[in-house]
Amino acid sequence: MSEPVFSIRDAAPADAADIADLTRRAFAGQAALYEDDTLPPLSDTAETVLDAMGRGTVLVAEDTAGSIVGSVRGEMRGESCVVGRLVIEPALQGLGIGRALACALEERFASTDRFEIFTGHRSEPALHLYESLGYARERTEYVHDRLSLVFLAKERCAPEGRTNHSS
Q1: What span, in angstroms and rounded, lies between the C-alpha atoms of 10 and 53?
Q2: What would the pLDDT profile of 112-135 be if each residue is shown by its tens digit?
Q3: Average pLDDT, whole number, for the chain?
């Protein structure tokens, strides 16, 4: 079986319901992992996705048939781009879609020097992905007996020749 071909683009308002459905499907596994069906992404709706679009950037990955197979959100909070809701169609996880979405989001926030993201402490595939992208664990927050949130961040390295002062 060959890997799916996908493209990444900015989400449009017409995508909101599909993104919300994908988010709920993707987080169903997390809900089972943590025995917690109250995780906020499980209650995503078209309206909450539209709200996210209004506050920041929402990207989608779509396959050649035009079906949305992944999504990620980014919004500025202070000096940092907070990355959230990186979701992939469950049957397509592990094929590079999440990595491509994360990298595309960083490109959209090219002038930002700090990125932050969080996930659950048992979410090993997500933790592995984020750490492979250069994120480092900063802190862990207890939520309940089955869930702690791991917060990770990365600083963008200055490209060769770029300085942080004026000549």
Answers
A1: 10
A2: 999 999 999 999 999 999 999 999
A3: 91
Q: Are 109 and 77 in contact (CB under 8 A)?
A: no
Q: What CATH topology corresponds to 6-155? A: Aminopeptidase (3.40.630)
In whole angstroms, what separates CA 149 from the centre of its chain?
15
The count of other CB atoms within 10 Å of the CB of residue 99 is: 15
SS3 of residue 151 by DSSP: strand
Q: How far apart are CA 83 and CA 74, in angstroms?
A: 5
| Beta-bridge mates of residue 89 | none
| Both structure tokens of 167 | 């000549």
pTM of structure? 0.89
CA dihedral 117, 91, 125, 103 (to 10 degrees): -40
Edge-first strand order for the sheet with 114-120 is: 6-10, 57-63, 68-77, 80-88, 114-120, 147-155, 136-144
Q: Could you state, in order of their start, the residue ranges of all structural domains in the chain? A: 6-155
Say which residue the tokens 């491509």 belong to.
Answer: 100
pLDDT tens digits for range 44-86: 999 999 999 999 999 999 999 999 999 999 999 999 999 999 9
For residue 104, what are the contacts with CB-CB under 8 A and spacing of at least 6? 8, 59, 72
Alpha helices in 35-142 (DSSP H): 46-55, 97-108, 124-132
